[in-house]
Write a sequence for this structure.
């Protein structure tokens, strides 16, 4: 296992002094290791089976926090500004982020409307907020109460927060409607794309595999 740091990194962020940190247990062979700090790009490997236990992000320990906060900031104009406008013969209609889900609901396709609203709008915001909440206490030196529960929630939401799917769906719809009506992409769509992009980077900077194995009561002194 990699050596040499004065603070412990659970995933990619500092959480507790080394003497109080949870040990790293290999998910393949069960070998228990002493948790240590990882420099950017460093990997912690199991001494018995050489399995990957943790990896330090190359962009620094605060990268997930920066990306998640940036995504949350972009989510505000994404929800408030015009998403897409379509017009023909002087009649123009402007759609917002959740306009499509609302029309699906009123058209009787309520299951699809809920899926679009939850996976494309609600869960990405919740996941960004959880990632930010996980990293802010460590950055400011506060107590990480409920750390394990937040990490488990983030690990679960990772598979359902899929704004990139909605981005692709909008682009496909624009390609099909472009020959019928005049379509204009609004600033809300570009902000939404930015939010989706920073969510993907924040997820990539966060060690879901490591935190999913933490105990439920993950409070840190």
């Amino acid at each position: 296992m990699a050596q040499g740091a004065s603070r412990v990194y659970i995933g990619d962020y500092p959480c507790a002094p080394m003497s109080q940190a949870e040990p790293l247990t290999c998910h393949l062979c069960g070998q228990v290791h002493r948790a240590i700090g990882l420099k950017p790009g460093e990997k912690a490997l199991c001494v018995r089976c050489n399995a990957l236990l943790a990896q330090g992000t190359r962009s620094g320990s605060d990268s997930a926090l920066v990306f998640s906060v940036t995504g949350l900031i972009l989510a505000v104009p994404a929800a408030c500004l015009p998403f897409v406008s379509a017009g023909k013969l002087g009649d123009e209609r402007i759609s917002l982020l959740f306009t499509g889900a609302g029309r699906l609901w009123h058209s009787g396709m309520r299951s699809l409307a809920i899926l679009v609203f939850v996976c494309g709008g609600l869960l990405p915001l919740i996941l960004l907020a959880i990632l930010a909440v996980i990293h802010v206490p460590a950055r400011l030196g506060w107590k990480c109460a409920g750390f394990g529960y937040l990490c488990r929630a983030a690990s679960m939401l990772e598979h359902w927060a899929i704004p990139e799917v909605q981005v692709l769906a909008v682009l496909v719809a624009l390609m099909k409607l472009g020959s019928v009506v005049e379509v204009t992409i609004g600033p809300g769509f570009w902000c939404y794309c930015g939010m989706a992009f920073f969510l993907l980077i924040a997820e990539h900077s966060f060690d879901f595999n490591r935190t999913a194995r933490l105990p439920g009561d993950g409070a840190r002194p």
